[in-house]
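Morning F.,

Quick status update on the modeling queue. The single chain you submitted on Monday has been processed. Sequence for confirmation:
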Amino acid sequence: MLRIYSTVLFVCLVSWSQSSVVYAKSNNCAVPAFGVSHIEIDHSGETGQVAREVGTNLATMDAFKTVLSRIVQLEEGQEFSLEAVEAADFVDFIHIQSETALVNRYIATIDICLDADRLRNWMQGQNYQWAEVVSPPILILPIWQEPSGIRVWQRNNVWLQDWYNLAERHDGLVQFTTLERNLSHERQIRAASAFQQEPRTLQTAIRLADAQQLLWVYAALNYGVDDRTVSLKAALFDKDGRKSSDVLERDIKLNPTTNMVLEFDQFRLDVLNKVEASWQQANLVTNKVIDSHYIISIELRSLRDWRRFQSVLRDMQEIRSARTVKLGVDLGSVRVTLAGSIAAFEQSIRAAGYDLRIEDGKYIASHNR
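Structure tokens below.
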């Protein structure tokens, strides 16, 4: 198991409409996984009001399908049953970024947040399993090797560039990020060291990206006597630059009919699906058990430490609620209700500056910065 701590177009017969969903969760929602940002509407109708209503309804269904695709884990042979669903019934609020209302046309960019409790109840009724915890950032570090050398920062390279593009448009529960390609990063992250998976180099890259893990993705051209191949590999590394798991390896024979762009695209898709599936599986909510409860204690040096810890907990999406159990001079305790796994909580709290350890069956948090 991997350890990792939609665009839809509708055309109406009676009028013309376009609604596109940009790949982005909405951080303005109470639960980011239940929102979609930057939905573009361009709908024509008999009147401007009709165009607005129909266009918004179509965009709402787009958002509903996008959220379901993001969070629900369908079993083999299982499909979404949406015929009787009114997506508007699940809307918490709609934020209008911009809009233009014409006589018989409506153009807008909106964000939609779905009501988490209503959607959870519906998914329970459908016997779905889902995950709703968004991962801490994972840095993608793509590497390309050819006979002339190793490339990490080259801009006109399809393999490297497409990983950067993917990090920007990915719309799953796993968050990906990349390092800006500049001289400072190039000096600190040498291509040869990245290729050799030197822990200190990978650790530096993760720190520069303010990430929690690193997805190392590699492609190499191999010229043999009888044939030529491309070797593709992907692996996950923890915050300390140590390998946590191999994700995928694949060798592709090159011949006159090989389409390397398609091969690269398929490999990227397979890697993403494995990483997403692993994260989702670790954070599944079933229709029987939604929440889990833990007592978390925090080592204190001052009252300011306690207030900061409370603020961190309030901002964590994994936490449904947090209630103070005990507050002493050097230790405070809270009872937290988690939407996801304790492993996901540990990843998020580490990103906020804390380590989590178990002592005598109790969870203890302490500063790691």
